[in-house]
Amino acid sequence: MPRCHLKASLRPVATVKNINVLSKPSYATQTGVGTIRPGEQPRRRAVTPFNDDGRVPWGQLSPAEKVSRTAQQSFNFTLIAGGVVATVAVFTLLYTDVFSPSSHITQYNHAVNRVRNSKECQEVLGSGQSISALGPATGTSWIRQRPKAQLETDRFGTERMKMRIRVQGDKNDGTIDLYMVRRADEGQWGWGHLCLDARGHERIWLERPGGEAKKKEPGTFFGIRWR
Question: Within 13 Å and on the Cβ side, how many CA atoms surround 58?
């Protein structure tokens, strides 16, 4: 049989439509915990007196949070005010007890310097550079500390200060007896007396009762006082 030759135009052609296999996936969105809807404020932790750092404005605080912030600020102010008061008290105490010209430590140093610079005391104790002030004795040893002053105030407002200071030189040792008076209308201390008691020697007066220092009596010869 003769073969039938079909024209190319009459052959059936299979056509395949283009299919986009790389289509964008679609995801389902869910509104739940931790998501922020449009127009909503982000959630924050509650403000307490222990975690409040001041970042949250006052207008955004709840009544309870406002009470917490007020309590925290009140505590901080009280703490700062207490620190200022304590600092002022410490500086005041240092001035009145150490640096003030009328403090007992100033009088202590003044009395020791009077003994060191006294020629009579140097003859008994030793050179002025070797004279050192010591604290009260405990047992057989001397503690190097400043003695405590005894302060008394009478009903007229007159203050009295007593102090005993142990001193030692390269020749001998002794005790300084200090007594001072400050009346109510006076700002500075005045001498009651100041003397040195050393072993084997008579008392040496640097300030006699009444505020007058000891003066050497003029010598006598055959009953005649020479001046």
Answer: 4
